[in-house]
Amino acid sequence: MNDSFNSPLLDDAVRQLGRLPGIGRKTALRLALHILRQEPSMADELAGAITRLRHEMQYCRRCHNVSDSELCPICSSPSRDELTVCVVENVKDVLTVESTGQHRGLYHVLGGLISPIDGIGPADLEIDSLVERVKAEGVKEVILALSPTMEGDTTNFYIFRRLQELPVKVTMLARGLSVGSDLEFTDELTLGRSIQQRILFSSTFANA
Amino acid sequence: MNDSFNSPLLDDAVRQLGRLPGIGRKTALRLALHILRQEPSMADELAGAITRLRHEMQYCRRCHNVSDSELCPICSSPSRDELTVCVVENVKDVLTVESTGQHRGLYHVLGGLISPIDGIGPADLEIDSLVERVKAEGVKEVILALSPTMEGDTTNFYIFRRLQELPVKVTMLARGLSVGSDLEFTDELTLGRSIQQRILFSSTFANA
After folding, report:
1. How far apart are CA B109 and CA B62, in angstroms?
2. Across chain A, how many H-helices and E-strands are there?
3. What confidence tier does B144 reach under pLDDT thresholds 50, 70, 90?
C-alpha cells in the first residue's frame, strides 16, 4: 500500500488511528473511510468522547479505580469489607474480579505491572500508595490478583517484599487447572503447580 | 462484563469507540484504557484528526476520490490516459489498482456497491455522474474493477446497462486462477470461469 492517500487529512487520520494498540494501517484506513461515510455528528461525538475521557477522567483517591467522584462507588459502599484489599493491574480487572462475585472487599488498582523491558518500574505504579494504605487503614489481607505472567509474578514478589514486615496477610490467586478443561491439554507448568498446591478435597465444600 | 464502568466518561468513550466497524466492547475498553495512559496531547491529536477528517475532507469533482484540492493529483496529471476510466468501489481500491502499475488511465470512485439488503441503491452511488462523465468527456473504455461478489456483479451489470447505448467499450476484470495458487484448491466456480474465459497462450506475451 502507498504511504500517502493524496490527502493530508486522510493521512493524518490514518496515522492517529494507527497509534491505537492493535490497529494497523489497513484497519486505520478502514475506520477512517467509515467515519467519512457517517454523519458529521458521529465524528464529533467520537472525538468529544475521546477528549473528555482523557481530560476529565478522575480516579478514586483510595483505590485508583476510574471514578467520576472522589471516592468510587465500591470504596464508598457500606456493605464491603474494608480490611480486605484485592490488588489488580487495571480497571478492566476490577470488573473481571467483580463478575465472579467472590470478593466482598475493596480494590487497589496498580495501573500496570513491573516490566523492565517496557521501562515500567515500581515507582510508575500505585505501590507506595498501597503500602501507605495498608498501614493507615490497618488492612488485614491483601489479595494479589495479577496475571500469572513473568511481569505479574515479578510484581507479586515486589509487593510481597514491601508488605512482609507489616501485620497483613498477603495471599495470591491459586494456580491450577481451569474449570472445565481437559487434564491432557493442561501445560506441565500449570499441572505441576496444581499438584504442589493441591487442596484438601473437603475444603472445596467449606469454601462454597 | 458489566454494562457500566462506574464512570459515565468511560462508558461514553467505550460506546463511541464501539460504534466503529470491527471494534467490539472489549476492544473499545482496551482502546479507552490505552488513551487514558497516554499524554493528553495524544487524545487531542486523535480527536482533532477525526473531526478534521469528517468536516474538511473534499472529493475530486471528476473522479470522487478523496482529495484536498478540487481536482485530485491523478485527474490533473498530464501523463494519464483520460479516455480510459477504471470504476472502483472506494478510495482503498484506487490505491490497490494503482499498486499494480497496470492502469494508466483515470478512476471513478462509486462510493459503495448496490446492495438492496443494506438499502444502497444506484442513486446512493456515483453512477449518474459516471454516465454523465462518459458522455461529456468522450470516454473510450470503462473498466469495471469491482469485487467479484454478489453486490459487485449486480453493480457491474447495472452500470453495463446504463452505458450500453453509449459509444464506450465496457470491460471488467478477468476472473481466473490466483497467481501462485494451487489448481487443487481453487473453488469450482472460479475454475469454471477460468475455463470459459481461457486466454490464448500467445496473448500473455503480448500484454507483458
Report:
1. 9
2. 8, 6
3. very high
Best of B46, B64, B94, B98 to substitute, by most chain A Cβ atoms within 10 angstroms, is B46
Which residues lie closer than 8 Å to A180 by C-beta, 6 or more apart? none
What pTM was estimated for this model as a whole? Answer: 0.69
Q: What are phi and psi of B119, to 5 degrees?
A: 70, 25
Q: Tens digits of per-residue pLDDT, A65-77?
A: 988 788 998 999 9
A-contacting residues of B 116-175, CB under 8 Å?
A: none
Q: Which three cell numbers stand for residue B13?
A: 468513550
Give the list of residues 6+ apart from residue B109 with CB closer than 8 angstroms, or none: B59, B63, B64, B65, B88, B89, B90, B91, B93, B94, B126
Task: Quote the CA–CA distance of B170 and B2 in Å, as a whole number.
Answer: 55
Q: Per the CB < 8 Å rule, is A6 touching B67?
A: yes
Tell how strand A58-59 and strand B66-67 pair up: unpaired
Q: Closest Cα to residue A20, out of B49, B18, B30?
A: B30
CB within 8 Å of B84: residues ≥ 6 apart: B103, B104, B105, B106, B139, B140, B141, B143
Cβ atoms A144, A89 nearer than 8 A = no
Q: In this structure, are residues A16 and A35 in contact, taking their beta carbons and an 8 Å threshold?
A: no
Q: Which residue has the cell 491459586?
A: A174
Task: Return the pLDDT at B121.
Answer: 94
Provide, as residue numbers in chain A, all residues whose Cβ is less than 8 Å from the Cβ of B29.
Answer: 92
Please tell me the distance in Å from B176's CA to the nearest CA on chain A. Answer: 23
Closest CA to A54 of B47, B180, B21: B47
Residue with cell 490497618: A138
B20 reaches A (C-beta below 8 A): yes
ipTM over 0.95: no
- Measured CA to CA, the distance from residue A23 to residue A20 in angstroms comes to 6
CA distance A97 to A88: 9
